[in-house]
Amino acid sequence: MTYQHNLEFALKLDQEDPLQLYREKFFIPQHSGKDVIYFTGNSLGLQPKTARDYVLQEMDDWAALGVDGHVKARHPWVSYHELFPELISKIVGALPVEVVVMNQLTVNLHVLMASFYRPDGKRYKILCEAKAFPSDQYAIESQALLQGLDPKEVIIEVGPRNGEFHIRTEDILASIEEHAAELAVVMIGGVNYYNGQVMDMSAITRAAHKAGAYAGFDLAHAAGNIKLELHDWDVDFACWCSYKYLNSGPGGVAGIFIHQKHASDPSFPRMAGWWGHEKAERFQMKQGFKAIPTAEGWQLSNAPVLSMAAHKAALDIFESVGMEALIRKSKLLTGFLFFILDNINKEHQEKIVEVITPRNEGAYGCQVSILMIKNGKEVFDALKAKGVVADWRAPNVIRVAPVPLYNSFEEIWMFGNIMKQVLMPDKSKE
Fold this sequence. Notes:
- By secondary structure, the chain is an alpha/beta fold.
- The protein folds into two domains: about 5-40 and about 320-430, Aspartate Aminotransferase, domain 1, CATH 3.90.1150; about 55-320, 3-Layer(aba) Sandwich (Aspartate Aminotransferase, domain 2), CATH 3.40.640.10.
- It has helices at about 5-15, 50-65, 70, 85-90, 105-115, 135-145, 150-155, 170-180, 200-210, 230-235, 260-265, 305-320, 325-350, 375-385, 410-425, 425-430; strands at about 30, 35, 35-40, 100, 125-130, 155-160, 185-190, 215-220, 235-240, 255-260, 355, 370, 390, 390-395, 395-400.
- The strands form four sheets. It has a seven-stranded mixed sheet with strand order 4-10-9-8-7-5-6, sandwiched between helices. The protein has a four-stranded antiparallel sheet with strand order 11-12-15-14.
- It starts with 6 loop residues before the first helix and ends with a helix.
């Protein structure tokens, strides 16, 4: 698309947007009596207006039924988690038997690593991206320690080359090949939280398998954001949260993917809990764990219904829209944002902002990370004072993420105009 730098063009795109009415399905925070420009769905998604009713339904059933709600609630709590596989599988590109909604993100990462990280002789190393999100770093380190190993000996990190901001796929693949004989697991963030880079998960998985290692991904910044084909890519395991692009509330229930070839094998090692036990015998309280032969077999505890109710409200919106339509709009929104930021540099006649998110097709999603050449925190604070909700990452990066479900092209233009006012106050008056 050929973009234009004017409000009329942005409004035209909004008028032609088939998803424009979905914005009305979310509560938008206010600033000085107006909607904020909410560009931080990569940190916490907005609340669906239906979420309250979904949660209150379970509260009402709890009040009216007490313990009988487990079998008599309008959505019986014993089987509540069974509402999700069909919905979430479409978002992550999986078979329904390969996904289950449970726990929180880092808990799930530990649960999965307990299954897939099993050091065996010389094959004991874990490859990850340099400066991964801290929870991933801590989880990997502690998994090594739990095996009696030194994390410094176990962890292989791949980072950007000198002077670059994102990791080249060929460098990840080369490192996998270099350490093939020692590699047990490749565990990488599917979308880098800092720079917004989408990793080539298909290529990384193929390389890991060629090396004899498992391939897993933290999809916290990927689920609900980019096109995922976990089953077809032959990914071994993955986990994600639901409070970012999936709009399911702070600390909302998370989810996991385990490829069918592993999930269908009841003997595959895992941490066992009673909710992963065969359903027909679950309440017989027998000794001896019998795993459900799907991803459900990794469940530990019964469903956190109130959190899951908010998750269901959000996923019903995703079901209505479909990931293809969301990704189509997302590409247009992000492309417009790239264009607006480039125009700021053009008008300033020198680089005043630098986009460190890669722009090649398939390498970005909603998030655009902007490296501020100078006065970054002051610019961020000024944006916030003008009603822009973005995200600051020290020492000098502002992350913005226009989300296709509730953000508009007009907001992209407004954001650029506000940035211009902050960065070039003299020019903004012209």
